[in-house]
Amino acid sequence: MHMNAESADRKEAAPAMTIIPTLMTERLILRSHRLEDFEEYTAFWTQEDLVRYIGGETSTREQAWSRLLRYAGMWHHLGFGFFAVEERQSGRFIGEVGFLDLHRDMYPTTTEGTLESGWGITPALQGRGYATEAVKAAIAWADDTFPGRRMTCIVDPENRPSLRVAEKVGFRRIGEVFYKDKPNVMFER
């Protein structure tokens, strides 16, 4: 293929590849998702108790695959994304935590351009403080990496455990948003 000087000038430089950090807490490892996580990851997203407050529908294998690839793309293009959460003692994949910028069709649109925080721990292990521990580690990393950047999250008002996590890690309620015609509590940090 032949390129003239004008088309070469318009060619954009490829973004630098982001190295996804590994974060360690007392009980957890926050790391990049791996292709070998896929079967566990797919099973994770088929748990009705997990998705009850996250859209309400379990994911198909294809949807789980798309989500896994979306996270890799966020790290590549935005320099942040979701971490896989691994239990240190067992080495099991138990959830995920991190940051998104989904350009949601939401009213009011208040998360776009922010570090929108999210988390999910497999239901059988909820109530042990894993989500709070993981979110605190992710926030500490983000505060160092993106100092001063606005951080947000949205939580279903019926999801009491996630409302508590948000408050424990320093988010404060700033209002309500509607996403997919459903109200959510809006937080910022």
Descriptive report:
The chain has about 190 residues and is an alpha+beta fold. Helix content is about 30%, strand content about 25%. The chain has a nine-stranded mixed sheet, sandwiched between helices. Strand 1 and strand 2 (about 30) form a beta hairpin. The protein is globular and about 40 Å long. Mean pLDDT is about 90; it is low at about 1-15.
Supply the key terms.
189 residues, alpha+beta, nine-stranded mixed beta sheet, 9 strands, globular, disordered N terminus
Q: Could you report the average pLDDT, rounded to the nearest whole number?
A: 88
Helix content: 25-40%
Number of helices, where a helix is a run of at least 4 consecutive DSSP H or I residues: 6
Q: Order of strands in the sheet with the most strands?
A: 1-2-3-4-6-7-9-8-5
Strand content: 25-35%
What structural class do helix, strand and pairing data support? Answer: alpha+beta
As residue ranges, the low-confidence spans are 1-14
Radius of gyration, taken over Cα atoms and rounded to an integer in Å: 18 Å
Query: Got a strand count?
Result: 9
Q: Terminal Cα separation, in Å?
A: 50 Å
User: What's the main sheet like?
Assistant: 9 strands, mixed
Order of helices and strands: HEEHHHEEEEHEHEE
Task: Give the overall shape.
Answer: globular
